[in-house]
Automatic annotation (TrEMBL):
It comes from the Bacteria. GO terms for cellular component: DNA-directed RNA polymerase complex. It comes from Thiolapillus brandeum. The gene is rpoZ. This is DNA-directed RNA polymerase subunit omega. Its EC number is 2.7.7.6.
Length: 92
């Protein structure tokens, strides 16, 4: 696998600070089960995130969209769990 350089990633991100933030957020998403957009060749999540950024597949907007989807799913699961708990309490 070819090495990823900061310069490759900076073609798609404004500056190094934003690159670090974007890569960290995306790596966290990958760790939590979000499907990678590039082949995962036994790499760590951070490397996969940087490969996605260097390929131009991940932007701050796409990461934000994924976070919003995850938050929405979390809210739905929490509501469903609360209903089940309430039903169990009422059934006692």
């Amino acid at each position: 696998m070819a090495r990823i350089t900061v310069e490759d990633c900076l073609e798609h991100v404004d500056n190094r600070f934003n690159l670090v933030l974007l890569a960290a957020k995306r790596a966290r998403q990958l760790e939590h089960g979000v499907e990678p957009l590039v082949p995962w060749d036994n790499d760590k999540p951070t490397v996969v995130a940087l490969r996605e950024i260097a390929a131009g597949l991940i932007t701050p907007e796409t990461v934000e969209e994924q976070e919003q989807k995850s938050d929405s799913i979390d809210d739905e699961l929490a509501a469903a769990l609360a209903q089940e708990v309430q039903a169990a309490v009422n059934g006692l």
